[in-house]
């Protein structure tokens, strides 16, 4: 990953597309490396964010949350949830092809937070199980 490029396998694309198809309240799914390089980004037409900026933000929030949890002696940070006026932003540490990554999911207010959390964590596990 030294050049910032990671192979996007068909299984990854399929998982993201199925996730969005089955969860219409999801307006954005992004997978990036923990050092801020985008791997795959899919968003609804109404939400236009730049993949590079989102990857940088996601990796930074994840790193800060990890550092905060460790400083407060709470162990590793598994999931970050940002509750906003129009919905929720969930960031989950995962891996893809053996590399540490951050999965970011944005769900509108219609999606129950517990459901969003459960489904996002499940998607992160699915990413981690894609064979190298």
Helix-strand layout with pairing:
Layout: H1 10-22, E1 26-33, E2 38-43, H2 51-71, E3 79-84, E4 87-96, E5 99-108, H3 113-128
Antiparallel strand pairs: 1-2, 1-5, 3-4, 4-5
Helix pairs in contact: 1-3
Q: What would you note in describing this structure?
A:
It is a single chain. By secondary structure, the protein is α+β, with helices and mostly antiparallel strands. The protein has one domain: Dynein light chain 2a, cytoplasmic (Beta-Lactamase, 2-Layer Sandwich), CATH 3.30.450.30. The chain contains 3 helices and 5 strands; from the N terminus they run H-E-E-H-E-E-E-H. A 5-stranded antiparallel sheet has the order 2-1-5-4-3, with helices on both faces. Helix 1 packs antiparallel against helix 3. The longest helix is centred in the middle third of the chain and has 21 residues, at 51-71. The two termini are 14 Å apart. The mean pLDDT is 91.
């Amino acid at each position: 990953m030294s050049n910032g490029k990671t192979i996007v396998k068909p299984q990854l694309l399929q998982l993201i597309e199925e996730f969005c198809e089955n969860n219409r309240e999801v307006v954005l799914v992004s997978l990036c490396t923990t050092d801020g390089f985008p791997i795959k980004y899919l968003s609804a037409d109404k939400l236009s964010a730049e993949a590079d900026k989102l990857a940088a933000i996601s990796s930074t929030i994840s790193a800060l949350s990890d550092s905060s949890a460790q400083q407060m002696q709470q162990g590793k940070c598994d999931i970050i949830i940002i509750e906003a006026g129009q919905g929720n932003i969930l960031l989950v540490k995962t891996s893809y092809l053996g590399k540490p990554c951050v999965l970011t999911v944005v769900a509108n207010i219609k999606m129950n937070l517990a459901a969003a959390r459960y489904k996002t964590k499940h998607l992160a596990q699915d990413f981690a199980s894609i064979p190298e």
